[in-house]
Amino acid sequence: MTLELAIAILVTVVGASTPILIAAMGELIVEKSGVLNLGVEGMMLVGAIAAFVVLFTTGNHYLAILVAAAAGVATSLIFGFLTLSLSANQTATGLALTIFGTGFSALAGQGYSARPVTLLGPLFPSELAAHPIWRVLFGYSALVYFSFALVFSVWWFLKKTRAGLILRAVGENDLSAHSIGYSVVGVRYMAVMFGGAMAGIAGACFPLLLTPQWAERMTAGRGWIAVALVVFASWKPFRLLAGAYLFGLVMTMELYAKASGGPLSVIPAELWAAMPYLATIAVLVLISLRRDASTNAPACLGKPFLPSN
Amino acid sequence: MMQFRLEKRREPSKVMLYATPVAAVVLTMIVGAIIFSAIGYDGVGAVREIFLTPLTNAFKWQDLGVKAAPLIIVGVGLSIAYRANVWNIGAEGQYIMGGLAATWVALATHGMGGWWTLPVMMLAGVAGGAAYAAIPALLRTRLNVNEILTSLMLTYASVQLIYYLVRAPWKDPMGMGFPQTRRFASEALLPNILPGTIVHAGVPIAVIVALVAWFIMSRSVFGYQMRVVGAAPHAARYGGFSENKTIWLALLVSGALAGLAGMLEVAGPFQRMVPGFPTNYGFTAIIVAFLGRLNPLGVIFAGIVMAITFVGGEVAQTTIGLSSSATGVFQAMMLFFLLAGDILVRYRLKRVAPQGEARA
């Protein structure tokens, strides 16, 4: 394999991984606060259509990202209100949110399919990324750099800040956090909204970064893979980064298997398409064999907060 | 100013348990009309076409039955699983595998079938769905892998399996290049039970499935086990009910019923396997199970309500040009209102006098 090809693979993998990474980082914060939001896929779809419509009408990529984030927050507030204010079942509400996001995005996207937009270009001038080696560092769009910064910020927030400590306390022992005066529901609302914003931006990655158009269900289960990745990473940001790139590799492998013409090229296209989902199951099985797999889960994950008074 | 406070009920309210699904449907119609009008659609028209036309137009009743049947069968299975707190959300995949298993029988016996073809296809469908649900069951009980994610990932994989099979090994050589199987022989097609309509044998089967499930869930040890393990896992362990066995049963039963629905669909309305076979019945059945309050009899009504929105969605598409995806939005809204209403089952609204007046 030539250096050029290796770098081309790396750059494609980073692109394919970015939406999963961003959405999973949001969900990591949500779960750290003790809330399980299974609506990531739905929020991503709402973000994707919001980004597409704004991009199509204004041509402004950054405005599209902002609106996608806002749309993600708005969608997440439905989940927040039902589960946090009305203590509805989180699993069922998350599923409902995904059903809603799928239907809503399809409705809002009516008439937008097969309309082309332009992808978000690289952040740095192309001279900087002229040499293949420099492309690895400077060849990406702003969304990719955002995802790098996000991983570091989430890690720093959880480990080094007081707010991060409060968030973790709420997720580990909501009653204690409540009794020393923290607003459990308030903290969880913030976390859920952050998760919504990230899912919205992750959804925006699809029309802005991957395929410059709108298609119903274009996120194709990536939101669910993001939820699985959080478990895979045992709620640790840097492990999540590694996991997301592993998935990006699985998702783009087909291109190279086909191009190389080697023994892998006989695998039918449908099996390649099924690969990310089968890999998710394989990964979940692998981590379950590890001893610390579930011990790192936030203790209050998925349980409603019900103070006695 | 009047103030309200939530007060926990000593026991969940039976009235609210059954009133909230009805309220959810009514609220969806009202709020749906308002929201759809606000975003520039004919909101009242949409609600009328989606919720009322399928009921008032007798010609649409047969569609209702045909659409409700798979929703009820899958919904009954899911209601049993969810009762046991087992979150099988991959019913769509189990439905697909049931349909594929039945297709395999139909293709393998093509030209040499007989009265036994349909029963064998039915068994294959049930086995296919159950086998596919056995994967999450095995992973959950042996390795404690979350069944939500595995069952869903398997659904995405099964869709690709259809694409592969109808593109290559099962492709109809006489199909003019279309990726689909040949039309099943007449022995492998569900009989119509009402001449002149599209109502097939799956419709009465759905009602029978729901009635049998209701009887088993409310009258047998199996049903008791499902309910106790779901509601009070600790108590269930003391009572000698194995949690693993419950997980297995919940997934196998829900998978088997989803597989049965898949068989009935492929041998009924579809008559062959096509790439468009997955029609989201498996996902919509999740809403059906909740709207039916996880009670098989409730699931019958919920299945009919959901079928109304499907048929109505098609009506609205032709009469007022509303996208069929609007149906999904209405269905999700229904579930949101239902989940929001759950708080009224466990709590009551109590009027609290403002502090100043309280002393007077």
From TrEMBL, chain A:
Location within or outside the cell: Cell membrane
State the annotated membrane topology for this chain: Multi-pass membrane protein
Q: Tell me which CDD domains the record gives.
A: TM_PBP1_transp_TpRbsC_like
Q: Which residues cross the membrane?
A: 6-26, 38-56, 62-82, 94-113, 133-158, 189-209, 271-289
GO MF terms on file? transmembrane transporter activity
Query: Is Transmembrane helix a UniProt keyword of this protein?
Result: yes
Which keywords has UniProt assigned to this entry? Cell membrane, Membrane, Transmembrane, Transmembrane helix
- Mind telling me which InterPro entries this protein's record contains? ABC_transp_permease
Q: Which GO terms describe its cellular component?
A: plasma membrane
The family database entries (Pfam families) matched by this protein are listed as: BPD_transp_2 (PF02653)
This chain's source organism reads Devosia ureilytica
Work out whether the entry's keyword set contains Cell membrane: yes
State the protein's name.
ABC transporter permease
From TrEMBL, chain B:
Q: Where in the cell is it found?
A: Cell membrane
* Keywords on record: Cell membrane, Membrane, Transmembrane, Transmembrane helix
Q: Per the record's keyword annotation, is Transmembrane helix included, yes or no?
A: yes
Q: Where are the transmembrane segments?
A: 21-44, 64-82, 94-112, 118-139, 148-166, 198-217, 247-267, 273-292, 299-320, 326-345
Q: How does it sit in the membrane?
A: Multi-pass membrane protein
Q: Name one GO cellular component term.
A: plasma membrane
Where is this protein chiefly located? membrane
- Which InterPro entries does UniProt cross-reference here? ABC_transp_permease
Known CDD domains for this protein? TM_PBP1_transp_TpRbsC_like
- Give the species: Devosia ureilytica
Task: State one molecular function term (GO).
Answer: transmembrane transporter activity
Output this protein's name.
Answer: ABC transporter permease
